[in-house]
TrEMBL record:
InterPro entries with a match to the protein in the record: FAD/NAD-bd_sf (IPR036188), GDP_dissociation_inhibitor (IPR018203), RabGDI (IPR000806)
Name listed for the protein in its UniProt record: Rab GDP dissociation inhibitor
GO cellular component: cytoplasm
The organism of origin for this protein: Mortierella isabellina
SUPFAM superfamilies in alphabetical order: FAD/NAD(P)-binding domain
Pfam families: GDI
GO biological process, one term: protein transport
GO molecular function terms listed in the Swiss-Prot or TrEMBL record: Rab GDP-dissociation inhibitor activity
Family the UniProt entry places it in: Belongs to the Rab GDI family.
PANTHER family hit by this protein: RAB GDP DISSOCIATION INHIBITOR, RAB GDP-DISSOCIATION INHIBITOR
Amino acid sequence: MDEEYDCIVLGTGLTECILSGLLSVEGKKVLHIDRNDYYGAECASLNLEQLWGKFRNGQSPPESIGRNRDYNVDLVPKFMMANGEIIRFLTHTDVTRYLEFKQIAGSYVYASGKIYKVPSTEMEAVTSSLFGLFEKRRAKKFFEFVQNYREEDPATHQGLNLDRDTSATVFSKFGLAPASQEFLGHAMALHLDDDYLNQPARETIEKIRLYASSMARYGLSPYLYPLYGLGEMPQGFARLSAIYGGTYMLDKKVDELVYDAEGKVCGVKSGDEVAKTKLVICDPSYAQDKVRKVGSVVRAICLLNHAIPNTSDADSVQIVIPQGQIGRKHDVYIACVSSAHNVCAKDKWLAIVSTIVESDKPEQELESGLKLLGTVQEMFISVSPLEVPTADGTADQVFVSRSYDATSHFETVCEDVHDLYKRITGQPLVLKQRSTQAQEQADMAA
């Protein structure tokens, strides 16, 4: 470890592993360290023994649950939009060679005490029981507007300026009822709260378009999920880094960051060893003096021996419970996968309920989601801080990522990667298609 590196990355969360892979491909000498003995850090996928060790130290998992190796339990539940930015990261770096994906079977929204399948096209809006007769017509016209909107063609704008008019103004133009607005903003645009209503409509319209285009790609739902859990994704980018000379050290403690006389980072200390560098990338847990807490996320990891009721026995679903339905300020999310995704034993399901903490009793804030699950076999509760860096990192060359938020997809993670990359290199990240494994082998043979 006593040598010099272009960059040292602390923590093997997805954000850190993507950046490690990208910088390694660009020829940087990267050392990657994690205090844990597994990949993924906060977004790891744990086997049974690791799960019990984290939440019930000293106890052993009951034999009735199944074998240790059958489980890969996500600590942070997120699905991938089929047309989302995370798919671009995976395909452009060819990390897809290390992963297999399966579609999430259904996307649902909670309304008036029931769960409904999320309609995402004008035809589904017309047939959905979520809307009344007249509201179906208005929803159909809104979906047609979203689908036909072209920036370069004012005839498709219907007199709206998405950079000036708010989401509330756009919804009002189509006469959409509050219940429909709630559905569009929370179940499709996937906003965490209602602040978006008073902001320019472009982001919301783009998010609805992303949802609809992702849905159209495969049908059933807009989401994909990697077999063997989300922990496979950091490992995939770690392999990419290793191919280009990146060095990985798991189960390695980090004692402190070392700075030079000018206050710039110059190394990372572990025990009696110091690895030299002029650049550090890390998650908030490695730089607590450089972050501030902006909230907390509470999550309940639940093991079930049945599908979630009223989801047609689906092997996987997402359910959004909009905050307005349950008198909260933030939505509650349910992400459910099963043995079909190689994350638990046969005939078992894993459901994770999560939301932003609003009170001093975070567990109670999950009750609306837990009620929808039916009988829960085992449950593990975690409360994680939401932390953001206090500086951009350019002064001391320590670049800190953001905590994983309560969103049910990876779009905010990708935004953080783009932001960090630009701060680190001074250049915007341009994803370039790498050679595929088959192309590389063909080149070597030639």
